[in-house]
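As a warm-up, study this chain.
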Amino acid sequence: MPRISERRRKLIWCSSITAGTLIVATALAFGYRGKMLDESILLAIMIAVFPPSIANYMDYKWRKSIDQKLPVLFRTIVQAQKTGMTLPQAIEEASKRDYGPLTKELKKINTQISWGMPLEEALQLFAKRVGTPLVQRTVPLIIEAGRSGGRVEKVFEPLGKFVDSILIMERERKAQTRPYIAIIYVAFYVFLFTIVLLFKTFFVSIEGAPILGSAIMNPEETERLFFHMAAFQAFFGGLIAGKMSEGSLNAGLKHSFVMLASAYLVFMFTL
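Now compare it with the structure written out below.
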């Protein structure tokens, strides 16, 4: 997946929030009240959340693909240095292979070195561009190994094993949290099913009862209350799912959108 720069992500956020605000402002201008206003606000939230969630996901996949190729890159550099190549030559040789998005970054490093930039500075810029914790941990070690001289390949071999172990632990952590993410979704859809069941059976069966006309049990007000509860559970449940699975609230936006859209469809076409 292509990289989404920080500037573009901020632009997407601003555009999405502006679009959502315009929807709410239009609804208020047309005098929407009650259920129609609630639905307009929920639609505005979904529009404000959807584009940033896609941008965050694409950027996450880009960074993840770079992390996953680091061990392979380090092994390639070790093999190249064992043949007598210097570190810049080994990086240049590695840039001729396919490492996905990492190949483009390696070519940038080569271009910067060919323009006269020191290898250390080129690596620091690479770490700043990518910005993943793994890259930011490994680049300083590579720089220090280059400063100390000697056989730099001895640093890359344990470094590759270290990155491999980190990636394995990350996969295990995601596998362990997956059931908890499923619980969040199941709980939400059970809640929606319960709401539909209540309105299709309980409230319909007592529609003629005098108590329904009172303030205690007004079906429209009850529906709005459940609507608000479903929206809150969808939004914040999605954020919690993202925090648990990927360690970031932004990663939860896609989960929030899916559950918000489900709630919107249920209340629009079922109740």
